[in-house]
């Protein structure tokens, strides 16, 4: 992948090279079972309200039955006016959003404009479609641009849908229940935040793969308010002992200082061409 | 999401669907339901848009895998707009259908998407074309597609008449979609209809509760 090219579009037409490569790889594994990438359980939700978009996510990252990260960041920065929540394979969502963010920032510098949400969605759709579902990224993109407040979902196969409210991840069914009940068009800011918070909370309560704290990100025309954490888990443990040892706990027996003698061997000066 | 996905022929989100297009006197009506499902059990969207405008007077309805259909339509839109710039005139409806057919036929092993193309052009007036899964392209007066279409073949064969008025045709299309949505579990939501004539394009959306009701409901 060329890093310096902006928005490099692949050759005309569809490119199914990866599909043939995958078919060839499948034959190499015993019993035809390719190794499954680790998925992290998640509850993410988004709501469009009167003045912008509110995105919410839990903060638990699991590796099978162990919580690998209790304060994982699932709301990714794409551009100053667009943020993206990611569910599915953690590495995929992380790298996909990073790639999108860097492409869009080059675009912003070149064109002098903030990117539109629909542009981010199109880039993501093209990329995920090219990989035919092999990139396990279920994304909720929310942002505010000159055309209004938008919330989109992009699936791992490259399908896109524009919606006023949405939940994704393993806790999505529970969260969706709260959203379906509480959503109205043109909500106020506090109502929208509360709706997203309670839907992510429902996901945390009903799904083992989601838990810990709730992050909220509010995007409006005025700017972004990323509240991390918005609500802390009520089951936060209280450590009785400190694991940090003060300096001096381990006795120093001997100390030896050897100075490094460095001499300048060669010095070159190259004038900068400031023409 | 993995727990929603069961053994389904279409990987990922499927449009499920009932799509329909019919020619009337002076124009064409094209319409669809608005449900997208995964694995035949989970409704992933109640309000997905399956009727996409590919040019000023040409619309397409998609069926099959949502991702594949959206990708093909995106490519077709850009092809068509380029073609239109080169020809310095709006594209013919058959041109739009052919672009879709090329993509579906050349990539038939990897794609799972079928389309209905309907529109108006100055050469042949209102037309309807079907591009099936494998890339076959045919022209018809009235056509239905998608999983829900199996329940309304009888209704369409019996009730369609050539040279209907705009109102008659709209009513016919709404009834057909309502009947299919009533029997097919992966079709539902609202009925999206678009009426295309020489004068312009009109969107008609019939919400679920305003759909016509029949005997057993």
From TrEMBL, chain A:
<keyword id="KW-0378">Hydrolase</keyword>
<keyword id="KW-0539">Nucleus</keyword>
<feature type="domain" description="Proteasome beta subunit C-terminal">
    <location>
        <begin position="239"/>
        <end position="269"/>
    </location>
</feature>
<dbReference type="InterPro" id="IPR024689">
    <property type="entry name" value="Proteasome_bsu_C"/>
</dbReference>
<dbReference type="Pfam" id="PF00227">
    <property type="entry name" value="Proteasome"/>
</dbReference>
<keyword id="KW-0645">Protease</keyword>
<dbReference type="InterPro" id="IPR016050">
    <property type="entry name" value="Proteasome_bsu_CS"/>
</dbReference>
<keyword id="KW-0888">Threonine protease</keyword>
<dbReference type="InterPro" id="IPR001353">
    <property type="entry name" value="Proteasome_sua/b"/>
</dbReference>
<dbReference type="InterPro" id="IPR000243">
    <property type="entry name" value="Pept_T1A_subB"/>
</dbReference>
<dbReference type="GO" id="GO:0005737">
    <property type="term" value="C:cytoplasm"/>
</dbReference>
<protein>
    <recommendedName>
        <fullName>Proteasome subunit beta</fullName>
    </recommendedName>
</protein>
<comment type="function">
    <text>The proteasome is a multicatalytic proteinase complex which is characterized by its ability to cleave peptides with Arg, Phe, Tyr, Leu, and Glu adjacent to the leaving group at neutral or slightly basic pH. The proteasome has an ATP-dependent proteolytic activity. This subunit is involved in antigen processing to generate class I binding peptides.</text>
</comment>
<keyword id="KW-0647">Proteasome</keyword>
<comment type="similarity">
    <text>Belongs to the peptidase T1B family.</text>
</comment>
<dbReference type="InterPro" id="IPR023333">
    <property type="entry name" value="Proteasome_suB-type"/>
</dbReference>
<dbReference type="Pfam" id="PF12465">
    <property type="entry name" value="Pr_beta_C"/>
</dbReference>
<feature type="active site" description="Nucleophile">
    <location>
        <position position="42"/>
    </location>
</feature>
<dbReference type="GO" id="GO:0004298">
    <property type="term" value="F:threonine-type endopeptidase activity"/>
</dbReference>
<dbReference type="GO" id="GO:0005634">
    <property type="term" value="C:nucleus"/>
</dbReference>
<dbReference type="GO" id="GO:0051603">
    <property type="term" value="P:proteolysis involved in protein catabolic process"/>
</dbReference>
<dbReference type="InterPro" id="IPR029055">
    <property type="entry name" value="Ntn_hydrolases_N"/>
</dbReference>
Automatic annotation (TrEMBL), chain B:
<keyword id="KW-0647">Proteasome</keyword>
<dbReference type="GO" id="GO:0005634">
    <property type="term" value="C:nucleus"/>
</dbReference>
<dbReference type="Pfam" id="PF00227">
    <property type="entry name" value="Proteasome"/>
</dbReference>
<dbReference type="InterPro" id="IPR001353">
    <property type="entry name" value="Proteasome_sua/b"/>
</dbReference>
<keyword id="KW-0645">Protease</keyword>
<protein>
    <recommendedName>
        <fullName>proteasome endopeptidase complex</fullName>
        <ecNumber>3.4.25.1</ecNumber>
    </recommendedName>
</protein>
<comment type="subunit">
    <text>The 26S proteasome consists of a 20S proteasome core and two 19S regulatory subunits. The 20S proteasome core is composed of 28 subunits that are arranged in four stacked rings, resulting in a barrel-shaped structure. The two end rings are each formed by seven alpha subunits, and the two central rings are each formed by seven beta subunits. The catalytic chamber with the active sites is on the inside of the barrel.</text>
</comment>
<comment type="function">
    <text>The proteasome is a multicatalytic proteinase complex which is characterized by its ability to cleave peptides with Arg, Phe, Tyr, Leu, and Glu adjacent to the leaving group at neutral or slightly basic pH. The proteasome has an ATP-dependent proteolytic activity. This subunit is involved in antigen processing to generate class I binding peptides.</text>
</comment>
<dbReference type="GO" id="GO:0051603">
    <property type="term" value="P:proteolysis involved in protein catabolic process"/>
</dbReference>
<keyword id="KW-0963">Cytoplasm</keyword>
<dbReference type="GO" id="GO:0005737">
    <property type="term" value="C:cytoplasm"/>
</dbReference>
<dbReference type="InterPro" id="IPR023333">
    <property type="entry name" value="Proteasome_suB-type"/>
</dbReference>
<dbReference type="InterPro" id="IPR029055">
    <property type="entry name" value="Ntn_hydrolases_N"/>
</dbReference>
<dbReference type="GO" id="GO:0004298">
    <property type="term" value="F:threonine-type endopeptidase activity"/>
</dbReference>
<dbReference type="InterPro" id="IPR000243">
    <property type="entry name" value="Pept_T1A_subB"/>
</dbReference>
<feature type="active site" description="Nucleophile">
    <location>
        <position position="17"/>
    </location>
</feature>
<dbReference type="GO" id="GO:0019774">
    <property type="term" value="C:proteasome core complex, beta-subunit complex"/>
</dbReference>
<keyword id="KW-0888">Threonine protease</keyword>
<keyword id="KW-0378">Hydrolase</keyword>
